[in-house]
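Lab notebook page, bench 4
Experiment: in silico fold of construct C2
Operator: M.H.
Input chain length: 307 residues
Purpose: comparison with the prior construct
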Amino acid sequence: MYTFQTKAEVTQISLTGARLIVILGALMTAPRDLQDLNSLISECGLVDKNYSNDTIRIALSTLKAAGCDISRPCKATNFKYKLLSHPFTLNITDEEINALKTLYANMTRGADYKLAVKFEELFNTLSGHVFNEKTSAELRSITSFCKIDKDVYDRILAEDGKNNILTITYATPVKKLGTKKFIFGRIFLKSNKLYVEGIDTETKNTVCYNMTRIREIINIEQGHNEYKPEVYKLKYLLKNPDNHTLPQEAKVHKGQKNQAEVEIEFTSKFFAVQHILSLGADCTILEPEDIKNEVISKLMELRKVYA
């Protein structure tokens, strides 16, 4: 934890301070009893032999006076001292957490996934300086990265831009595992979720996989693979356009009677259909016909559910 090169230059005052730092650091990692604390101080090279228990208790009282909340040893803590909180850390309120969530959502809407990665690094750094575990967990959960397998995440990021063929184990929304094989095209961020887009090697259709559902990278085949995703060019009429938040890339041509013609491209049929459905009754699809039919099919399914 802490080591000191020589004890000869340590004065009585600095020795007291060093003892407090060691005890605080020890309690930050786990509950400790008097013997644990004594042993750690000795291991750090501060003394040749153990202190008395009274000296350790005085050090604990000093930490409490400095603002540390340390519980008394009892049966619930296995008769060990437990650090509940201390003033030498960041204190982030619930209001500030909510502000960070709003900031993240607004700044990453329609942005490159690499910006979300930077936010993830920032929130992890902040969580490392927050002693309150609830607050620390909330910071780590602002992005969706905490739900992604780290090994999967690292390997996929290493493949970004290479157009290699990936074989993965993937869990469907009903938690059914299956194998997927596709030419890896790109990573993108959508609704605070990371997706992998590619071309299915059998159907040649564009596919998108939620990275939180990828359980394993089974195989990676290198080669000069061509990545050409399908492009769905949507055109629709939108009533009350000012009441809707459209993607930045949408081309909006406002007309009369509070109506606009919107053109936008998607490389995924799923997200194209989801976009149209999100606009509700204000949207009338003009083209293409297959997206219109897909939306009608989805609406018929919903009608059966709520009939």
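Observations: The chain has four domains: 12-85, 94-143, 150-221, 232-306. Residues 103 and 216 are 32 Å apart (CA to CA).
Next step: discuss at group meeting.
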